[in-house]
Amino acid sequence: MKVKTTSIWITIALALVFLFNANAQDKWHENNLEKFIDGTIASHMKSHHITAATVSIVKGGEIQLAKGYGVTDFNSNSPVDPNASLFRIGSVTKLFTYTAIMQLYEQGKLDLDDDINRYLTSYQFPSEFNQVTTIRQLMTHTSGLEASFLGGIFHRTKAETLTIVDGLNTFKPKQVKPPGQNISYSNVGVTVLGRVIENISGVSYCKYIEVNIFNPLKMRNSDICEQEDLVSKVVTPYKYERDEYVSMPFGYLGQWGPAGAMNSTATDMANFMIAHLQNGEFEGSSILKPQTTKLMHSAAKTYGTSVPGMAHGFFEKWVNGYKGVSHGGATMNFFTYLFIVPNENVGIFYSFAGADASNGLRDIYNIFMDEYYPNIAKTPAVHSIDDLTPYLGAFRTLRMEFSNVAKFLSFDDEVHVEEGENNTLVVSYEDKITRYFPIAEDVFQQKTDDQRLVFIKGDDGQFQYLHFGKKPYRDFERVHWYERTWLSVSGLSCVLLFSLFMLNKSLFGWNDSSVKVLPKWSLRVLILSALSTVLLFFYLIISLASLSFEGMSYDGLPQSFIDSTYYFYAYTCLTIALIYWTINLFITKSGRIRDRVYFLYFSLCSCFLIAFSFIWNLMVF
Prior knowledge:
Low-confidence stretches: 13-22
Radius of gyration: 29 Å
Number of helices: 19
Strand content: 15-25%
Structural class: alpha+beta
């Protein structure tokens, strides 16, 4: 009887397994998959006024779906062809640069932990901390480079572009953190790897990628050199404004090609995904050895095993309990994502053309995973932490400029961490408020899904850095009290209001008795200081209002904004004169006490403005 009962249970279990597998296979049936993706893409396109999109999905070494949506341009009204219509894939290009580096590594032509300068000629990587920067650190964005936007990223014509080495020698961001310490996304760092490929291979970066990756993967419609004949096949992106669509320019990357210049199709990118999911193999050709492919997908820079970090170029991405690797890409008007799960032998690639397409970009692969790979992750137990105070405070991204005037553009970019109810943290960033609960020492997870963050201690033993698992390509650093946004805004508001008050009082409200007893030059300096302060505020406001992402992408910061630094030099001299007369008034006891306090308070306001400009590189000595 016992044997018979056991047999029944085994039969039921096998039947359930069969039904589950049948359901899973049914979900992957071409019509079912296509219908689901059609609805997902259509919804995203409608919500964000997207005119063209392309997608490919692979599983088990085969293309399950490759499809285009929308039109290549409004003039021809030609439908997007997944086999022929080119999309700018932005930083997904980096995966080809990293793959090339791994090819050279497995051939014994470079060591991932060697000094990068060993493989460079005509350009040397900075070494501000007298420490070696390695190839692996450039692949994981831990080289310590600051971001660099001053020189512009895009070019309007092919003729404006430079060679890789000339670009690197023209725009030189500084190394602001010790190599290997923190993650901070760097386009320049990946461009350096492109130069390494040229030096070792003896051919141009473009030629190397074409021969060693495109050809064996039969990526016949892809272009990484921005060739004129292929650029014409790139779909036209449009920006939706004032109820109409406006076509946007192409934008050449030139010298920054290894970081984001590639144009490709859905089917070509499917071939690339298949190769990475098949241990480097594609239809009898090999671009990487199996062990090299696995190494490339493995963790290279993490903060423990509980939170996603950086693989060798790929981002670690955990969704619904499945561990994958990914990379996103963004130009001004194209937004792309590639996500593969090696253990499931599945991958998805998609790209959208449209200036507003970035919103919700990452929702697509999450929706795909929710449908075909539902959540298998177990909710971890709550870890008790007696005191959350050490984690609280404000943090700012390390992906910013530190050494020049562009630092000012990040002064209001803060992540706020506050204590919530029931032993939780409330994190506010980019107009979103998220609640996290502790799951391990220094590790927290969202209440609504499996997204995590971890706090990292600095040399002083305090929590100096914050790392989000959902954005593993950049860390956040604790903000010093004097760099807090609220302090800056409050102080600047007081300075402006008191400057207007003093300007009005100096011109119209100072009584005759005060004017007679106060030295004439003290009043002149005061009036000039107040007027200069007001004018400076308006100058900065107008300069900031004139900034645009498109303009900075092509030309960097406007010269008028950069030139504001010279104004602060003159303002400093004026403040010194104001301080001199303030001290003089107190020593000689000239004027009323109230008059002397006005001078003192305005001197302090001027000093605050100078300190602010110095902290945010509006005045660099």
